[in-house]
């Protein structure tokens, strides 16, 4: 059964296999796949793949000190709720903001979070380029996580402005992470960040190629960043 795959991964990652929590993971998956027939929430529709590529992939940072110490976390470009929902289920004491530019996705997440009584999640609709300039969100979070599809320079411009000084950014990237880190070093520094490390969590049998890039926020982000909507993706910082 697919849920056994999740249990095995949890054991490898040192995560407690709490029945109530596992049941919420199962229900959320079933509901997302049901909704997916009406709204495009995920391209992954087979349960085993869903568990590997959405759930296990989302929680591979479980033991990272940056996540452990954070109290407020923003998930930029959450899509169907990843990695935000899996992390929120494992850390009910932390507050999660799940941000996306597509409101109909967020309405689904709101509905499912309510039904499953996931009380530490709120959604936020808008583009990062706009929301990161809002007083209540700028440099307001201990941690930013993102699995959004964008090069690291662009993603850093979206995400680093949300993070408090002393906070961190976890960027989920693929096997070409080393190239992206080299290309993004200047942009990361310009935005007030500092590259700390790249981690690949060794897990057996799951065929996951995600590396997590850990960036620390060491200074304030200049007021002009992020630039206006669309610019970070069209003209990545060099």
TrEMBL record:
Keywords from the named record: Cytoplasm, Methyltransferase, rRNA processing, S-adenosyl-L-methionine, Transferase
InterPro entries recorded: rRNA_ssu_MeTfrase_G (IPR003682), SAM-dependent_MTases_sf (IPR029063)
| PANTHER family the UniProt entry points to | S-ADENOSYL-L-METHIONINE-DEPENDENT METHYLTRANSFERASES SUPERFAMILY PROTEIN (PTHR31760)
Cellular compartments annotated:
Cytoplasm
What is the recorded function of this protein according to its Swiss-Prot or TrEMBL entry? Specifically methylates the N7 position of a guanine in 16S rRNA.
Q: What is this protein called?
A: Ribosomal RNA small subunit methyltransferase G
Its family remark reads: Belongs to the methyltransferase superfamily. RNA methyltransferase RsmG family.
Gene for this chain: rsmG
Enzyme Commission number(s): 2.1.1.-
Q: Which GO terms describe its molecular function?
A: rRNA (guanine-N7-)-methyltransferase activity
**One of the record's GO cellular component terms:** cytosol
Q: Where does S-adenosyl-L-methionine bind?
A: 77, 82, 128-129, 147
Among Pfam families, the record links this protein to:
GidB
């Amino acid at each position: 059964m697919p849920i056994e795959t999740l249990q095995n991964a949890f054991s490898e990652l040192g995560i407690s296999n709490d029945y109530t929590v596992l049941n919420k993971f199962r229900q959320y998956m079933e509901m997302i796949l049901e909704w997916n027939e009406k709204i495009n929430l995920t391209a992954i529709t087979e349960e085993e793949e869903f568990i590997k590529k959405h759930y296990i992939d989302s929680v591979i940072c479980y033991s990272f000190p940056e996540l452990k110490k954070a109290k407020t976390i923003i998930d930029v470009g959450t899509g169907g709720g990843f990695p935000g929902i899996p992390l929120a289920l494992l850390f009910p004491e932390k507050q999660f903001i799940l941000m996306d530019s597509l409101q109909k996705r967020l309405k689904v997440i709101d509905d499912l979070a309510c039904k499953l009584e996931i009380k530490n999640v709120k959604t936020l609709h808008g583009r990062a380029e706009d929301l990161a300039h809002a007083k209540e969100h700028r440099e307001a979070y201990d941690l930013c996580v993102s699995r959004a599809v964008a090069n690291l320079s662009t993603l850093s411009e979206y995400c680093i402005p949300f993070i408090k000084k002393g906070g961190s950014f976890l960027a989920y990237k693929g096997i070409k992470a080393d190239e992206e880190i080299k290309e993004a070093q200047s942009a990361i520094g310009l935005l007030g960040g500092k590259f700390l490390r790249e981690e690949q969590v060794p897990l057996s049998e799951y065929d996951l190629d995600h590396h997590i890039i850990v960036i620390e926020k060491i200074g304030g982000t200049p007021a002009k960043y992020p630039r206006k909507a669309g610019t970070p993706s069209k003209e990545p910082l060099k």
